Amino acid sequence: xxxxxxxxxxLPNWTTYAGGPTRTSFRDDPIKPPLYxxxxxxxxxxxxPTLIAVDGVVYFTTLDGRLxxxxxxxxxRRGRTKLPDNIEGTCTYADGYLFIALRFxxxxxxxxxxxxxxxxxxxxxGDIASEPLVTHDAIYVSALYRHIDRYDPLTGDKVWSxxxxxxxxxxxxxxxxxxxxxxxxGSVYALNADSGELKWKANAAGAVFATPVISExxxxxxxxxxxxxxxxxxxxxxxxxxxxxxxxYQTAAANGERVLVGGSDGHLYCFQVTTGEMLWTFxxxxxxxxxxxxLGDVIYFGTLGKQYIGLDLETGEDLWxxxxxxxxxxxxxxxxxxxxxxxEDKFVYAFSRTMPSASKQKKGAxx
Length: 367
Known about the structure:
- The protein has 367 residues and is mostly beta strands.
- 2% of the residues lie in helices and 47% in strands.
- It has one helix at 358-364; strands spanning 26-27, 36-42, 47-54, 57-62, 66-71, 77-82, 89-94, 97-102, 109-113, 118-123, 133-134, 139-143, 147-151, 158-163, 173-175, 178-182, 187-192, 198-203, 213-215, 218-222, 227-232, 238-243, 253-254, 258-262, 267-272, 278-283, 293-295, 298-303, 307-312, 318-323, 333-335, 338-343, 347-352.
- Strands 1-27-28-29-30 form a five-stranded mixed sheet, with no helix packed on it. It has a four-stranded antiparallel sheet with strand order 2-33-32-31.
- The chain is globular, with a radius of gyration of 19 Å.
């Protein structure tokens, strides 16, 4: 698969899960409802949890081991690569390369040259059930079987490894020199990003599957113990916490003033970042199954009830709903004036404030 920019590369890209190293899922520019579904694309299998939107192209993996690239404006497929042995994976982007992590196999971390359509290197990084984090000089991976690692993105060489006590489904988050990862046994590890040395460890009363979110000197994450925690990033001490009504599996989102997290009970909670004051809740009537995407004063998220929902950030007022063809497990992302999402049973969606013409809708849909 060789892909080149579909349009001028002058808009902010969405290069990784939750938008960046701190995993805040936040952009300051609003895209306000009403939104229209401008195209729907049918893939070969269910879409993975992460969409990558770069220079007018959206990349995603499927559960049957494909990597697809679509033109964001039209929904036309621009390329497809088959991953080894049809293994499920995920990807992140940096400097013209996709870094692909596989859930299992012999060579589970790969660097892929987008322009040339070929792999640069392949290494065994262990089974990976999380999203890798790539910076200009490092790849951080929380591997499933009890280790957190740093690799050199140029060569794929391992720089350091830190052994833990249990499995990892939580992805790493990074702020400055502090790398934070949750663990299935409830531990939260903060490591020195340069050396891999432990800075501190905190403990929840249940598994931490959610990826940490770092904002305003705090680490935000939920646990299966139903508690949402705000930890001091320097010490790991709890600044505040809130007991919800159900286990929390999803990653939060934050904009510096507010932090939002969804529960499996269908409630989306909005808190004041500093004090933990609960500002509002929204009942989505089904499990909240993605992080919220914060776009200025509007937020978007998906549910297991086959919906994407848009709310007013200030009040929690219901602004927009879209019914999908399956349960939603893929976090919405933004590129330019487009919001992109996906649902189970193979479908990718593009939304815009511009109502599509009948011809454009027909061209974009590949059902």
